[in-house]
Each structure stands twice: as C-alpha cells, then as structure tokens.
Amino acid sequence: MKIVSLLLLVMFIGTGCSSQKKTDMTSTIIEYSAVSRGYYKNIVIQNQSVLVTNGRDAQTVENKIDDEKWKQIVGEFEKINLESIPTLKAPTEKRFYDGAAIGNLKITQNQKTYETQGFDNGFPPKEIEKLVNLLTDFVKE
Predict the structure, then answer these.
(1) Which of 9, 21, 103, 127 is most exposed, with minimal Cβ within 10 Å?
(2) How far apart are CA 79 and CA 118, in angstroms?
C-alpha cells in the first residue's frame, strides 16, 4: 500500500512540474524589424497585442491578436532555443548588395534579450522561419 501511495505521489508531483514548463508570454516581447534605405517595417508582439509600424514616419497601429493566432505564435515560440538565436546563420546574402532589407528578430524574456544577426527580409534562418512568417502576416492584414 505504501508503494502504491508513493507511486501516486511521484506521478502527481511529476505532472504538476510539467505544467509549469509552459511558456509565460505575458512579459515576453518579440520584435521583428526589416530596414533598408527606402524600407522600414517594425512589428512588436507583447501580451496578445501587436504594434505595427510600416514606415519611418508612419503611425504605429495597435491590434489585439485573436486566440487562434496567439496559440500559433506561442507554439512556434516554444520550439525555439533562445540561447542559439545569436548564432543562427542566414540562408541568403542579398542584403549585402541592397537586394533585400535587413531583417532582425529580437526576443526579450525575463529581462534577457536574444537577438539574431541580420538576415534577408523574407528569408529568415529556418529555425525561426515559421515564427517570423507569423509575425510578418500582421503587415499583410
């Protein structure tokens, strides 16, 4: 009987700890920017809202993110290894000769900032590609 009780206790504690692994996105800030001489786009996501700026002198537009889109963003965010973000390699190099704007992803979580090296706008590293595509969808809407 003691063994059964002990096993149930271990299982209960184990499931309680696994639920704490969910990412707390309320204080996480995800920022994507794409910049060149004649192009400027900035998208900031925080706490289920998005701020979009489509030009250097343009007004910032704020919108609420619907629950379905938010779940997609959180799902893709959880797949990313934050520590590896600064070392991600860009798949193309068009930005070196003005063939593409310079894209950049910056994530701030728990007062620590993780930022990618520059990459071609529209061609992010494959490790963050789905998240970046979800963010750039806000500009198309």
Answers:
(1) 21
(2) 21
- Containing 33, the helix (H) or strand (E) segment is strand 29-36
Helix (H) or strand (E) holding 131: helix 129-140
State the Cα torsion 88-91-93-95 to the nearest 10°: -70
Distance CA(125)–CA(62), nearest Å, equals: 27
What is the C-alpha to C-alpha distance for residues 66 and 56, in angstroms, rounded to an integer? Answer: 27
Instruction: State if pTM tops 0.90.
Output: no
pLDDT in tens, 41-98: 999 999 999 999 999 999 999 999 999 999 999 999 999 999 999 999 999 999 988 8
Amino acid identity at 69: K
